[in-house]
Amino acid sequence: VLAATAAGIVALRPGFARVAVAALLFVTAHTLLIHHRTTSIREDYRAAVAQLETAFQPGDAVVAVSGTPEGFSQAPLRHYLRHRPDILDALVPLDIVLDDPQRVVSGTGRLHVIHRTAPYADPLLDRLRAALTTTDDFGPMRNRIVYLRLR
Which of 61-100 are b and which e, b meaning 16 or more Cβ less than 10 Å from the residue's Cβ? Predict the structure, then answer.
């Protein structure tokens, strides 16, 4: 399709070719925009964080599991929770949680997890789930992001 479109544009006169390329870029950009909005790509973290905010109690711990370095893993949470310093203070680095999950949840016994499903992140979540129990409080998968609460 791209080759046929390119051949057709090349066959046009220079003035028409510019208009055709501009129209093609416009249509492509808007198609991507519509796809992005209809699949709610940005809503994945927002919905999971909203569920976290609803369930959070003082003394709870929060962790982000994405399989990426801590700064990247926590960045969406820091952004969407910027108005909730109480929850941001409860954000714990994943390596600390993996070292001693029972100590991290010793306050209320609850660990809120925002997990981004990926082949390199799933084993980390499996380690957490082996050490703690998943409660019935978890969210649906939204564009590879899920909220879980562990005890």
Answer: bbbbbbbbeeeebbebbeebbeeeeebeebbbebeebeee
Specify whether the CB–CB gap between 128 and 150 falls below 8 A: yes
Residues 66 and 115: beta-carbon distance below 8 Å: yes
Closest residue by Cα to residue 61 from 115, 97, 98: 97
Rounded Cα–Cα distance for residues 53 and 47 (Å): 10
Nearest CA among 125, 126, 96, 122 for reference residue 113: 125
The reported pTM is: 0.72
Q: For residue 16, what are its two tokens? A: 């028409």
**pLDDT tens digits, residue range 84-126?**
999 999 999 999 999 998 888 887 889 999 999 889 999 999 9
